[in-house]
Amino acid sequence: MAEVDLHLHTTFSDGKLTPMELVKLCSARGLKTIAITDHDSTEGISEALQAAKNLTKMSIIVGVELSTDVPGSEIHLLGYFVDHEENGFQETLSRFRDGREERAQKMVERLDGLGVPVDWKRVQELSDGGAIGRPHIAQAMVESGYVKYPRDAFDRYLGRNGPAYVERIRLTPVEAVQTLVANGAIPVMAHPTFSVSGMDASGKDDLNRILLELKSVGLKV
Known about the structure:
By secondary structure, the chain is α/β, with parallel strands linked by helices. Helices cover 48% and strands 15% of the residues. It has a single domain, classed as TIM Barrel (Alpha-Beta Barrel), CATH 3.20.20. The chain has helices at residues 19-28, 45-52, 87-113, 120-127, 134-143, 150-158, 173-183, 192-197, 201-216; strands at residues 4-8, 33-36, 59-70, 73-80, 186-189.
């Protein structure tokens, strides 16, 4: 049985559980070491660390997940052992979260124009004060009966080539790795097969070059 999970989200991004609930569940499932890696946010870390104090066999790694753009797809980068109290880093994350919200509002506006009106207040409620993302819009669409599953919302409307898709402010992969290294964090690539799946043939050929470039600026592989 696995005792480690290094890629977990809470309600501070697109997870379903609060940091405390997540820590308790992981402990109950026998995990000994976990990393909290919310999208563009470390706001759930304090609660997670507090929850772990009462669990002598639970270790929390402070992490974050950053989304970056590459032609035709995106690469997600995880940062481990983040200094979540570093002001400059928090300013960067705050900028990204603001960009997420502006993007989500524009996507809701596009859905409305497509005859698929979604309640913006419900999207905010689903985010529960965390970083708003496409999964929250997708869930609102499920609740409104437009699609059966959140995945359907991505396939038909919210995916990169969907009619309601809107770009947002992102770093390049190199910039994201450099940001994490400057913070003292350890950067690694998240779910590489997901990144490859969105690329065309030329993009896949570029992946090795991208990985070598990222390794040269600090990516751990």
